[in-house]
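Continuing the series of single-chain predictions for the mutant panel. This is the parent chain; the variants come on the following pages.
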Amino acid sequence: MMRALSDCPNSRRNLKVLMRSGMMIFLMRAMLVLSIAGCNSSSQLASNREVAYQAFSAADTAFESKQYQEAKDQFTQAIDSGGLIIDVYIDAVIKRAVCSATMDDFAAAHADLDKMEQGAPNLDEVLAARSYVLSKQGKKKAAKAAWTKAKRINRRVKSFEE
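Parent structure:
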């Protein structure tokens, strides 16, 4: 760009005018503000990620202790924070669906599983959770069909239990 400015007398004159008018100072300040704003957004992302993983850890502990309402609330916070990597996000949504089913909120459970079934890499776990939800609803035949599909994908898939 400097070469282009030196080759063109009008460009050099325009640069001098910009410098005299304070426009160059304005542009330098704008670049400084933008670079600071960029740092804030990356620190915000790091903060979101930290909140997400703390919530996920608390949710997982509550889930293992069968404190499903607490687990569901914490999974929701982790999911909504936007800081989870995809595998952890999918795990959180699946477990939140199981929590919903234990509290007889079958619509929420199926809604979460419907989202995950559309492309989750761990479809076996989604189907295992679906089997659990259907079983809680008393739909034994559909529950067995979902479990059979899950086992076909992964013979070692674990079932969800209360």
